Amino acid sequence: MADNPWDEKKDEKLSASLDRAKEGNPREWRLIEKLLMGLHAEQRRSRRWGIFFKLLTFIYLFALLGFAFIGRDFSDEVVSHEHTALIEVRGAIADGEEASADVLVGALRDAFKEPKAKAVILRINSPGGSPVQAGYVYDEIKRLRGLHPEKKVYAVITDIGASGAYYIAAAADEIYADKASLVGSIGVTSAGFGFVELMDKVGIERRALTSGEHKAFLDPFSPLKDSEKAFWLSVLDTTHQQFIEQVRNGRGDRLKDDPQLFSGLVWSGEQALELGLVDGLASSSTVARDVVGAEKLTKYGPKPSPLDQLIDRLGVSFAGALATRLGLDSSTPLR
Fold this sequence. Notes:
Elements: H1 5-24, H2 26-70, E1 83-90, H3 101-113, E2 117-126, H4 131-147, E3 152-162, H5 164-169, E4 174-177, E5 182-184, H6 196-202, H7 226-251, E6 266-268, H8 269-275, E7 280-281, H9 284-292, E8 297-299, H10 306-325
Parallel strand pairs: 1-2, 1-8, 2-3, 3-4, 3-5, 4-7
Antiparallel strand pairs: 5-6
Helix pairs in contact: 1-2, 2-10, 3-4
């Protein structure tokens, strides 16, 4: 395609103007030429530095990916040393959560079938949750202990092991806690609100249509009948008795005869030791070293992929740097 004739004419005019300027005032021309050469050199340097920093960024990201793969701990997949299996029971015990029955049962089965795992420690930091999910885990621990009587299970409560979390702990051979841990809460609760009188004051009419006489008996906008309240309390009491029975089966004669034991109260680790709710005061590393005799702790359970770990690390680092930059870092040292 031919060049645009208008562009050619413009270039010719510009060249002619520059030639006239050079002939008319060579000194000014040299200054202009020097300035243009400097700008051209600066542009080239900027382009080189831009390419350099882009390459540096890519190298940094690829290096992080490499370290994520190379530095990944494969000891949990291919175990060549004797160790104590560690399973975390952390947060609410509920379906879909980190401490769901599916997650914990899978980790327990892996730990029991690993011949290099000398024992299993359940490190518990949970306020409890679903009695169904806790029951699944309790039953599986009992089953696996029956299949592998040589492999002991130890529950170690850190900050809190209450309600459904203690339900799970009761299936272990022994339970340990810190002296300040919160232990117990052997009870069942069901809470809600009633807005009947408020609706009467506001003048709102509740219209609930059901095909069963008691289908909406827990509806907060309808009055709770005495018969329905008694029925629901019987359901809670039945669940409570199931909880008590499993704790008694797990703890046996170690439990003290105290009328408050199954009242739903929670105790410190030191008090729990006196009541027979725990067997000793120790951390998971202490139990692994002094009780099991295999100091090396190896975690069992689902693990994030290297890419997920990298994204998590980058996210935390970026958030921390941003918070510091904005003056939002409110961390205060203990004194």
